[in-house]
Amino acid sequence: MQALDILIQDPNLPTPLKVIAQKVQNHQRITFDDGVYLYESAELGYLGVLANFVREEKHGDKTYFNRNFHLEPTNLCVYDCKFCSYSRLIKQKEEGWALTMEEMLHIVKKYDGEPVTEVHIVGGVLPQYDVAFYSALFTAIKKHRPDLHVKALTPVEYHYIFKKAKIDYETGMKLMKEAGLESIPGGGAEIFHPEIREKIAKDKCTGEQWLAIHEEWHKLGMRSNATMLYGHIEKFEHRVDHMEQLRQLQDKTKGFQTFIPLKFRNQHNQMSNVPEVSVIEDLRNYAIARIYMDNFDHIKAYWAMISRETAQMSLNFGVDDIDGTLDDTTKIYSMAGAEEQNPAMSTKEFFQSLQRHPIRQDIYFCLKENASNGSTIY
């Protein structure tokens, strides 16, 4: 008998939780109110049973990872997000960096001969990094290394550069695709609800604009990811509202690959007075995300944000994709107090203690390597 069957048959399980568990077992979508109720009332063990049921229905015991590197053009930014430990306002430029095109390409070339499949480009928003600049950068990267997947920029950057160029989202995304852009990361989503977004990131693109840019990208037949920043001043209703808006767009476009909950870290930012949530809340949040986001194939955890130990535990609470398992040069998380990342050679060690099957994959989740024994599979 499966754990979910045992759970449902428990006579002490409250009726609302039993009804939700039966929905999950029968592959029925839970509602907004169900999602809020889970946050308010469900214990971790219950959530783990439901989330692991969904995870294993979709992926069995497979756990995915890929080999990528980060390219961060600048940490200078025109925006002043209260939660951000990474960026510096332009007036604080002595504390930041802004790379030239040549310096960025030099970083890309450092990985020549390395078995990386993707470059992840994201950073601050600067006026000189415009449509023409990024188009030229993407084209140069693809010319130098055609097999390197370019995942770059969030709707925050795209909204800014398209507005500056006086072009609409549809035109802008077509230009980016023609230049070599292949997918969009999930950053900049934070929390969509205007009540919270106005307080933590009031001057950058709205939740509606973020969603609209991803929708235009999906219309081109392209894929992207989505994130949610949790554990700060938002309420449970705001988290569920955020996931509901993503779920609705995914119903429409089917263009999202992965949902990535991002933990708020409180070091070196303007919200340092807000305490960080516990590991228990991290795991509860991953589990509810897996249960709620029924039309998303993958739930990803960044071990750099939550620690390797929590990332390992998250694999039993709905997560099937681990990022940050290689020579990942991002400063975005470490500047907020998160764990420094380990080199790729630790990947096998990371999975050895788990009852999971580690699979290296490319950006489209095409399988490349069985990490438990090093063999290559296609």
Strand residue percentage: 15-25%
Give the helices and strands as they follow along the chain.
HHHHEEEEHEHEHHEHHEHEHEHHEHEEE
What is the CATH C level class, in words? Alpha Beta
- Summed up, the helix count is 15
What is the 3D form?
Answer: globular
Q: Percent range for helical residues?
A: 40-55%
Summed over residues and divided by their number, the pLDDT gives a mean of 88
Distance between the termini: 34 Å
CATH architecture: Alpha-Beta Barrel
| Secondary structural class | alpha/beta
Number of strands: 14
- State the CATH superfamily name: Aldolase class I
Main sheet characteristics: 5 strands, parallel
Please indicate the count of domains.
Answer: 1
Record the strand order, biggest sheet: 7-8-9-10-11
**Might you state the CATH topology name?**
TIM Barrel
Low-pLDDT stretches are 334-338, 371-378
User: Radius of gyration from the CA trace?
Assistant: 20 Å
List its traits.
single chain, 378 residues, alpha/beta, TIM Barrel, 5-stranded parallel beta sheet, 4-stranded mixed beta sheet, 15 helices, disordered C terminus
How would you describe this protein?
The protein is built from 15 helices and 14 strands. It is α/β, with parallel strands linked by helices. It has one domain (58-376): Alpha-Beta Barrel (TIM Barrel). The strands form four sheets. A five-stranded parallel beta sheet has the order 7-8-9-10-11. Strands 1-12-13-14 form a four-stranded mixed beta sheet, with no helix packed on it. Strand 12 (357-361) and strand 13 (367-370) form a beta hairpin. The two termini are 34 Å apart.
